[in-house]
C-alpha cells in the first residue's frame, strides 16, 4: 500500500450539490463487454450552499468512458477530468441533461459488486457503493431518482430481463436479440437499483393488499431449483400480511420479484421490487434443507420485504445511518419470526448470537457504535453491531415506550419521512414525539461503542420488609472512546418467593422494567416478607453483561421456577458457565477434572418435565458454546475450553444415558417432514439427545446415528447424524458416510456446502490438512463466497482447536487465503480475516504468531481498502 486510503467522517456530511430527477438507463449485454448508456436529468440542489459549477460524479476505475455530453453537446477532454474516484465535469448549468456511454466487463467482475455474472446469469449488487461500478453517477443514498431501465440481450441465452418496477415496453432487435423497458415510479437511491438477465424459471402467486390491490409475486431461479421455492413464497405472503397487521404497511408496486443466485457476497438484497437473494437464503426443501435453513429462508425473505418500508420508502441519508434501516428491519424480522414460531426460542437464538459474535466485536479492534463516526470502507460496517445490536437498541425503545406508543412512533416516522433519506436521529425523534418520552440520555446507545457491564447486589431487611437492588453500570474503553457516559438501560426483572412463585411488583404485575439512568442506582421494593431470588434482565431487555452473585442453587432454582422462559434458559447457561469456568481454571493448574451430580440432576428435572416446549428443553440441555466461553474469558485458553466442555458433555452423557435414550425414542416420529415449530422442536431435542449419546463413545449409539443417517427423510436428521459421526472417534465410519453423502448430493451445491462445513469444523486432529485437500476438490471454488464461507470461514471460526493450533498452521493458512482473496473479492477477504483480528484475547505465544500473520497480510502488496482497514486497525 503506497497511499493511505482516505477516511470518511460523519461530521463532514454535506447535502448534495446536484440532484438527479430522472435516470434513464440502457444496457446492451454482450459476451465480451456491456455498454451502459445513461441519460440523467440533473439540476442544482436548492438546499446546497455550494455555488460550484463543477459536477463530481462517482465512477470506478474499471469504467471505460466512451462518450459524454451535456445538453446534447459532446464534451471533449478539456471539459472534464477522470480521477481515481470518478469524473469531474466543469461549467455545468443549473439544470441539464447529462448523457454518458460507458463500457464495463461483467465477466471479469469477481468482486460481485456492480454488474456481474453468476453461473451465466447477469445480476447486480449496488449496495452500498456498487452502482459506481456500473456507470458514472451521484452514488449516495440521499440522491433519489426515478429510474427507467432498458435491457437488451440475446434472446435465447437471456430470455428473462428484469429490473425495478413494472415492464412498460418490449421488442425484438437484430441478431436474435430482444429488449424490455422497466419503469420504477418510486424515486430511489442508486443502491436500490437492480438488473437481472438470464435463463430463469419462476413460480408465481398473487397477493391482495389490505386496501384491495393485487400484487403479482414471482420467484425466479434456475430450472433445477424450481421445486425449492414454495417455502419462500409462503414466507413472503406471511410477511406481507404481518407488516399490514403489525405496522399498517402495505406493498406499493404491482409486482414483487425475488431472484435466486449462487454467487452472492451477503444473504440477500432489498432492491426495490426486485430482491436478489443468495440461493442459501431462498431455496428450501425437506430433503436438502435443515430446519435452521428453513428458518433462515423465512427470516431473510421477511427481512428484505420489510425493507420496502424501513429502508426503501424511508431510506438512509448517508451510510453512517446504516443501522437506521438494518437495526430496525432486523428488529421487525425477529418479531415476525417470533410470531410465526416460538417466541422464546427465537429470543434465545438471537441472544446467543449477539453475546458471542457481537460482544466479541465490541471487545475487538473494529468496535464501533451503531452510528459510527468514520470509516474507510463502508462494506466493513455491515456488522453484527449495525445489525444485531442496532436491533437491540430498537427493541429497548419498544420496551421503554410499550407496544402502543412504539407503533405510534413508527407510524409517525413513516408518515413524516416517506420518500426521504433520513438519519437515526429522525427515527428517535419520531419515537419521542409520538410517545412524549424523553430519549435524550438513551441516544448514547447510538454513539458509544462497547458492551455495558451491570454489577448488581441486593439486600433484604426483614424488619422494614424492604428489598433493595443496587445496580451499577460501566462500559469498557473502545478504540477512540476512552470514557463513556452512563446509558439509559431498561432492566426487566421479577422477584421469586421461596416456592418459586412470582411476587407482585409495584407496577401491579410480575415483571417490571427498571430504568437505570445513573452510574449507580438503588431500587427499593416494599412489603416483601422473605428474601426473594431476583430474576434479572428478563427477555434480555438490554444488550449488556450482567453480574450478580447467584449461587449454583439459585440457578437451579431459577431453571425450574422462573416464569420467564428466556430466564430459565439463561439460568441454565449461567450454571453451565460457572461450572465450565472453574474446570477451565482447574486445567490451567494441572488439576484433574471432577464434576458432581448437580448439573445432571438439574438437567434431569428439565428432561422429565413433559410440559416444557421441546425446543426449549434442547436449548437448556445445550452447554454454553466454546465461542461464548471464549468471549467471557479474560485470556482465551482454546484447548482448555474445548477439553472442559467435552469432559462435561461426557459426564452428563454417562449420568443421564437412560434419560437421553428414552427421550430420543419419544422424539422419534414417522410423520412426514414439516418445518412447523412443533416438529422442529422435536427434531432438535432428539438430535441433542443423540449428541449426548454419541458422547458416551459407545458403539451402540454409533449404530443408532448410522440408522438415523440412512433412514432420515430430511436434511436436519441426516446432517445431524453425519456431523456427530464425523466429529467422533469413529473415524472409519465417518469417512464412509461422508463419501455416501457426497455421492448422493453431488448435484445440490447447497448440500455440498454443508458437507464442506462438516469437515471444516471437525475438532479431531488433521482438520487443516483435510481443508487444504478440499480446496482442490471439484466441489470447491474460491470465487464463490458460499464455498469460501463453508470451507475456509467454517474452519477458522467453528473449529477453534484446529484453527488455533499452537504451531501457527491455522493462522498461516488464513493469511494465505486472505491475501489471495484480497484481489479477487475484497469484501469476502476482509470478513474472513476477523478471527485473526482478535489476537489480543489470547496468550502471549499465540498473540505473537497471530500478529505476524496480520503483518504478513499488511506487507503482501497492494491491499483493497476493505482488507487494509481491518488489518491496519487490528495492528494499531
Ligand atoms: N442490505 C442487505 C440486507 O440487509 C444486505 C446487503 C448489504 C446485501 C450489502 C448486499 C450488499 O438485507
Ligand atoms: Zn437488511
Automatic annotation (TrEMBL):
Recorded catalytic activity of this chain's protein: Release of an N-terminal amino acid, Xaa-|-Yaa- from a peptide, amide or arylamide. Xaa is preferably Ala, but may be most amino acids including Pro (slow action). When a terminal hydrophobic residue is followed by a prolyl residue, the two may be released as an intact Xaa-Pro dipeptide
Peptidase M1 membrane alanine aminopeptidase domain boundaries: 231-443
Cross-referenced InterPro entries: Aminopeptidase_N-like_N (IPR045357), Aminopeptidase_N-like_N_sf (IPR042097), PepN_Ig-like_sf (IPR038438), Peptidase_M1 (IPR001930), Peptidase_M1_dom (IPR014782), Peptidase_M1_pepN (IPR012779), Peptidase_M1_pepN_C (IPR024601), Peptidase_M1_pepN_C_sf (IPR037144)
EC category name: hydrolase
Keyword vocabulary terms for this entry: Aminopeptidase, Hydrolase, Metal-binding, Metalloprotease, Protease, Zinc
Cofactor requirements of the protein: Zn(2+)
Residue span(s) of domain Peptidase M1 alanyl aminopeptidase Ig-like fold: 450-548
Pfam families named among the record's database cross-references: DUF3458, DUF3458_C, Peptidase_M1, Peptidase_M1_N
GO terms classed as biological process: proteolysis
EC number: 3.4.11.2
GO molecular function, a single term: zinc ion binding
CDD domains for the chain: M1_APN
Keyword Transcription: no
Domain Peptidase M1 alanyl aminopeptidase C-terminal, residue spans: 553-876
Residues annotated as domain Aminopeptidase N-like N-terminal: 101-192
Function field: Aminopeptidase N is involved in the degradation of intracellular peptides generated by protein breakdown during normal growth as well as in response to nutrient starvation.
PANTHER family: PUROMYCIN-SENSITIVE AMINOPEPTIDASE
UniProt record similarity statement: Belongs to the peptidase M1 family.
Name of the protein described by the UniProt record: Aminopeptidase N
Amino acid at each position: 500500500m503506497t497511499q493511505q486510503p482516505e477516511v470518511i467522517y460523519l461530521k463532514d456530511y454535506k447535502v448534495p450539490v446536484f440532484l438527479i430527477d430522472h435516470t434513464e438507463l440502457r444496457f446492451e449485454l454482450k459476451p465480451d463487454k456491456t455498454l451502459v448508456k445513461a441519460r440523467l436529468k440533473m439540476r442544482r440542489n436548492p438546499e446546497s450552499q455550494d455555488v460550484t459549477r463543477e459536477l463530481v460524479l462517482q465512477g470506478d476505475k474499471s469504467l471505460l468512458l466512451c462518450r459524454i455530453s451535456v445538453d446534447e453537446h459532446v464534451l471533449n477532454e478539456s471539459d472534464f477530468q477522470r480521477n481515481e474516484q470518478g469524473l469531474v465535469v466543469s461549467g455545468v448549468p443549473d439544470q441539464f441533461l447529462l448523457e454518458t456511454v460507458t463500457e464495463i466487463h461483467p465477466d471479469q467482475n469477481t468482486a460481485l459488486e456492480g454488474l456481474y455474472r453468476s453461473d451465466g446469469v447477469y445480476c447486480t449488487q449496488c449496495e452500498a457503493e456498487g452502482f459506481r461500478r456500473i456507470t458514472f453517477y451521484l452514488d449516495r443514498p440521499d440522491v433519489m431518482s426515478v429510474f427507467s431501465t432498458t435491457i437488451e440481450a440475446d434472446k435465447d441465452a437471456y430470455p428473462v430481463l428484469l429490473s425495478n418496477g413494472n415492464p412498460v415496453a418490449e421488442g425484438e432487435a437484430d441478431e436474435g436479440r430482444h429488449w424490455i423497458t422497466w419503469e420504477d415510479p418510486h424515486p430511489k437511491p442508486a443502491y436500490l437499483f437492480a438488473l437481472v438477465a438470464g435463463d430463469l424459471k419462476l413460480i408465481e402467486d398473487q397477493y391482495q393488499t389490505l386496501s384491495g390491490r393485487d400484487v403479482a409475486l414471482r420467484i425466479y431461479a434456475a430450472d433445477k431449483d424450481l421445486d425449492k421455492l414454495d417455502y419462500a413464497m409462503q414466507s413472503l405472503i406471511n410477511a406481507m400480511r404481518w407488516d399490514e397487521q403489525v405496522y399498517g404497511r402495505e406493498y406499493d408496486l404491482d409486482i414483487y420479484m425475488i431472484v435466486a443466485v449462487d454467487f452472492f457476497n451477503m444473504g440477500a438484497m432489498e432492491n426495490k421490487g426486485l430482491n436478489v437473494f443468495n440461493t442459501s437464503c431462498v431455496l428450501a426443501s425437506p430433503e436438502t434443507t435443515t430446519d435452521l435453513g428453513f428458518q433462515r429462508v423465512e427470516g431473510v425473505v421477511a427481512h428484505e420485504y420489510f425493507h420496502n418500508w424501513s429502508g426503501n420508502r424511508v431510506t438512509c441519508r448517508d451510510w453512517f445511518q446504516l443501522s437506521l434501516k438494518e437495526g430496525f428491519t432486523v428488529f421487525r424480522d425477529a418479531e415476525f419470526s417470533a410470531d410465526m414460531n416460538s417466541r422464546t426460542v427465537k429470543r434465545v437464538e438471537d441472544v446467543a448470537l449477539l453475546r458471542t459474535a457481537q460482544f466479541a466485536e465490541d471487545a475487538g479492534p473494529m468496535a464501533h457504535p451503531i452510528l459510527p463516526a468514520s470509516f474507510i470502507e463502508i462494506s466493513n460496517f455491515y456488522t453484527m453491531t449495525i445489525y444485531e445490536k442496532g436491533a437491540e437498541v430498537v427493541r429497548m425503545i419498544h420496551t421503554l415506550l410499550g407496544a402502543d406508543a412504539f407503533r405510534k412512533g413508527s407510524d409517525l416516522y413513516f408518515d413524516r419521512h416517506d420518500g426521504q433519506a433520513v438519519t437515526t436521529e429522525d427515527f428517535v425523534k419520531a419515537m419521542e414525539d409520538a410517545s412524549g418520552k424523553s430519549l435524550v440520555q438513551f441516544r448514547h446507545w447510538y454513539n458509544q461503542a462497547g458492551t455495558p457491564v451491570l454489577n448488581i447486589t441486593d439486600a433484604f431487611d426483614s424488619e422494614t420488609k424492604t428489598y433493595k437492588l443496587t445496580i451499577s453500570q460501566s462500559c469498557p474503553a473502545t478504540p477512540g472512546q476512552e470514557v463513556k457516559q452512563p446509558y439509559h438501560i431498561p432492566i426487566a426483572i421479577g422477584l421469586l418467593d421461596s416456592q418459586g412463585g412470582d411476587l407482585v411488583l409495584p407496577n401491579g404485575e410480575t415483571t417490571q422494567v427498571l430504568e437505570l439512568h445513573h452510574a449507580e442506582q438503588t431500587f427499593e421494593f416494599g412489603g416483601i416478607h422473605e428474601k426473594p431470588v431476583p430474576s434479572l434482565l428478563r427477555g434480555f431487555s438490554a444488550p449488556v453483561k450482567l453480574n450478580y452473585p447467584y449461587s449454583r442453587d439459585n440457578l437451579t432454582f431459577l431453571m425450574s421456577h422462573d416464569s420467564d422462559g428466556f430466564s430459565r434458559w439463561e439460568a441454565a447457561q449461567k450454571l453451565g458457565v460457572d461450572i465450565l469456568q472453574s474446570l477451565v481454571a482447574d486445567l490451567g493448574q494441572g488439576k484433574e477434572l471432577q464434576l458432581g451430580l448437580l448439573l445432571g440432576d438439574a438437567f434431569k428435572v428439565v428432561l422429565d418435565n413433559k410440559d416444557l416446549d421441546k425446543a426449549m428443553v434442547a436449548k437448556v440441555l445445550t452447554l454454553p458454546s466454546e465461542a461464548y466461553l471464549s468471549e467471557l474469558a479474560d485470556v482465551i485458553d482454546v484447548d482448555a475450553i474445548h477439553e472442559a466442555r467435552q469432559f462435561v458433555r461426557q459426564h452428563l452423557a454417562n449420568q443421564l444415558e437412560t434419560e437421553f435414550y428414552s427421550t430420543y425414542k419419544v422424539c422419534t416420529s414417522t410423520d412426514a417432514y414439516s418445518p412447523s415449530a412443533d416438529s422442529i422442536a422435536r427434531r432438535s431435542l432428539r438430535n441433542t439427545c443423540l449428541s449426548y449419546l454419541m458422547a458416551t463413545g459407545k458403539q451402540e449409539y454409533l449404530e443408532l446415528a448410522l440408522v438415523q443417517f440412512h433412514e432420515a427423510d430430511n436434511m436436519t436428521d441426516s446432517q445431524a447424524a453425519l456431523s456427530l459421526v464425523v466429529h467422533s472417534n469413529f473415524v472409519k465410519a465417518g469417512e464412509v458416510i461422508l463419501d455416501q453423502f457426497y455421492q448422493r448430493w453431488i448435484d445440490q451445491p447447497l448440500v455440498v456446502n454443508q458437507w464442506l462445513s462438516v469437515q471444516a469444523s471437525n475438532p479431531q486432529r488433521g482438520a487443516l490438512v483435510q481443508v487444504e485437500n478440499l480446496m482442490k476438490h471439484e466441489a470447491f471454488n474460491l470465487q464463490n463466497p458460499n464455498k469460501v464461507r463453508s470451507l475456509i470461514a467454517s474452519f477458522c471460526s467453528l473449529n477453534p482447536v484446529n484453527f488455533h493450533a499452537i504451531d501457527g498452521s491455522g493462522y498461516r493458512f488464513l493469511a494465505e487465503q486472505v491475501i489471495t482473496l484480497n484481489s479477487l473479492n475484497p469484501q469476502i477477504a476482509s470478513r474472513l480475516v476477523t478471527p485473526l483480528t482478535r489476537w489480543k484475547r489470547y496468550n502471549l505465544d499465540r498473540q505473537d504468531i497471530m500478529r505476524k500473520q496480520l503483518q504478513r497480510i499488511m506487507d503482501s502488496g497492494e491491499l483493497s481498502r476493505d482488507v487494509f482497514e481491518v488489518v491496519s486497525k487490528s495492528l494499531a
